[in-house]
Amino acid sequence: MTSTDDFLKANESYAASFGDKGSLAIPPARKLVIITCMDARIDPAAHLGLKEGDAHVIRNAGGVAADAIRSIVISQRLLETHEIAVFHHTGCGMLLFQTQQLRDLVKNAAPDDSEVARHVDAIHFHEFSNLEEAVQRDVLFLKSHPLVLKETTITGWIYEVETGRIRQII
Amino acid sequence: MTSTDDFLKANESYAASFGDKGSLAIPPARKLVIITCMDARIDPAAHLGLKEGDAHVIRNAGGVAADAIRSIVISQRLLETHEIAVFHHTGCGMLLFQTQQLRDLVKNAAPDDSEVARHVDAIHFHEFSNLEEAVQRDVLFLKSHPLVLKETTITGWIYEVETGRIRQII
Asked: Which of B8, B18, B24, B38 to probe by mutation at the A interface, max A CB count within 10 Å?
């Protein structure tokens, strides 16, 4: 079982009402970058009112800024964005484990595989223990990062999975 | 000017019709991970018919699998996903530059800053020159990666920004 048939069926509807979106420009119209978590409960376009063409959307486990620098450099230097909004969210899985625990879990599942151990020991999973602090830390990280343009507007937010509401932290 | 007021206004509407989404579980209901580009023209939930709770969505510049391993390990080992669909798209900015060009552009904008040079020279930007090949390469990369579970179903797709349509490559 794969999602192939589901994808094709849903996409048929989307393409049928695509309208004039085929003429959108590459640079985001709102010169905006969103960084948020990969969490399945989050639909950033829906909860922020973004439509196709508006903003770059970077998503990874936790909405971790340190994991987004490559993408941000491309966004800012080649496609002229100058605002970044970082979102973390309540109930995030990143609050529930520590890097060493996950490394151990992966290695214990393949105890004789040195390649697995080598790869997983090289990864820091960027978990966090306090949501507000993690937002503040990510915003400060971006503000002080040598590759993020100095004139960038950077804000930090929390999305509440329980209510669908957002609140600004910094 | 920031997007703060726009975010809050749009979010008010979203939260008002949030319904019972506050009770969704953390693990994706469809045990599915989507990897796709940060491109502003792409709304993966819309063009694939995903609703909140269905799938992890990882997005970065290009939809590059090598940049998603940390997130995939968390998704698979802690939240039990076992299908990955990788999407690249027509008209991608990653087809338009080479790493050395972008490094030079960044360094030329701050010619006396050795920190900028040090940071940008450490980044490979993972550009690609052929779309179909890039999809195939990313799928093979994931299939052979020591940290991706062997039983994972992995498919590769192209999204057409001109039409809104998807097509499966592998």
From this structure: B38
